[in-house]
């Protein structure tokens, strides 16, 4: 327990040490989105699913902040420690592969959680944000955070240079998230884009989180939860296998 | 010696016992070709060899940073692969590279390390205080490691390796590229640690260093242990004046011997004085 706690403390310590970059910047970014899409453009867009546009867009922004911060934290932290060689300190310790994986995953998860909670609190002060299905919202956000934390671990371990990490973020993550329907409802899209969206896993995440907050969804909630749970479990298992074999970590 | 007999429990288990260790990297390079080695509890053991001989690979395999292809490594009787927890708890590693995290302070570096090894908070605190004191790092306690000088970083790495009170300390070229002052300082530290009962495995390029510190020495070349013994032993056996000549003979570079350097006519005339 001391081992896992120390390994996790190290990851949290890292992002709390550079708060401008790891907490300040993402919060500012989220509030810029809220200002632009909510305050400036929102009045022109009109209601979506019976909600003011600003209220409609906030659940997606909270989810996006969770996802991107979890991912970025873990991929950067692991790659940076690999570069410095500092990760050998953990790898030559008696910590098990499971403990190492859990701690690295938790680092990004906790940063994503911190930022989404702050975003939620501030957003609640600005607008009247409902929470319709609390018991769906919590597992949905948990799965989103865990999925992207795990993805960050995977990319960080596999990466050999910083370009690999920023490539994954710019060319895979951002398009998936932006096209998943953070800023709009997929039902507004013309074909074939509407059908294509259904192949984007982020679409299901956003739908779940939006359902948790607003109670509206154009997909089957239980199916989305099951699929997301399965995907997250599979990714976690793949990471575990990777840590156990020492792939790209041990020589 | 009475002191070492008192510190070891029961019949002495070797600190490190390596049997037929082979390490082949995915690239096909065979860094270790069946190495066997035994280091007794309390010994100060030197592993010498040129760059690329397999010194670091041997250390990586013993500390879990690399997986052996075949063969066995036992640390105080614990298998380094299957009982990795017990084996790694017994080992402290001071690697060749200054691999400390730039973001952490000196205290955090030591504290986290202690945590990875399962030390509780109170114990960590006490041990950190103790180590900062003995490594003259007290004033640097809250400095980020990135702001330290190279010499300070070396000390932090050694302190970190000792943090969890290992029974076997592995030093991978600790004095590569350090100035004379720091080298001597490090020698004093490690000699002190050894005299307190910790077994030491030291790899180095500096034969003088091995001669000074180590009770026993092994030469590694091309992934194989080519000879071992005490330094006098080796020099005597090879019928040469120094350990360095024995070393050169073993790595097949006899022609580089210092005996040939400056062996010009004028040096002969100097001799006649």
Task: List strands and helices in order, with pairings.
The complex is a heterodimer of chains A (251) and B (273).
Chain A: H1 2-17, H2 19-40, H3 42-45, H4 53-84, H5 87-91, H6 97-126, H7 134-158, H8 162-179, H9 193-197, H10 201-214, H11 221-245
Chain B: H1 2-7, E1 16-24, E2 30-39, E3 44-48, H2 55-63, E4 70-75, E5 78-79, H3 84-89, E6 91-94, H4 106-116, H5 121-134, H6 150-162, E7 168-172, H7 180-195, E8 199-204, H8 207-213, E9 216-221, E10 224-229, H9 231-237, H10 243-250, H11 265-271
Parallel strand pairs in B: 3-8, 3-9, 6-7, 7-8
Antiparallel strand pairs in B: 1-2, 1-4, 4-5, 9-10
Helix pairs in contact in B: 4-5, 9-10
Describe the fold and architecture:
The complex is a heterodimer of chains A (251) and B (273). Chain A is mainly α. Chain A has one domain. Chain A has eleven helices and no strands. The model of chain A has no long low-confidence stretch (mean pLDDT 92). Chain B is α/β, with parallel strands linked by helices and 273 residues long. Chain B has a domain of 121 residues: P-loop containing nucleotide triphosphate hydrolases (Rossmann fold, 3-Layer(aba) Sandwich), CATH 3.40.50. In chain B, 38% of the residues lie in helices and 22% in strands. A six-stranded mixed sheet of chain B has the order 6-7-8-3-9-10, with helices on both faces. In chain B, helix 4 crosses helix 5 and helix 9 packs across helix 10. Chain B is globular and about 55 Å long. The termini of chain B are far apart. At the A-B interface, helix 1 and helix 5 of A face helix 2, helix 3 and helix 4 of B.
Keywords:
A: 251 residues; globular; B: 273 residues; alpha/beta; Rossmann fold; four-stranded antiparallel sheet; disordered N terminus; disordered C terminus
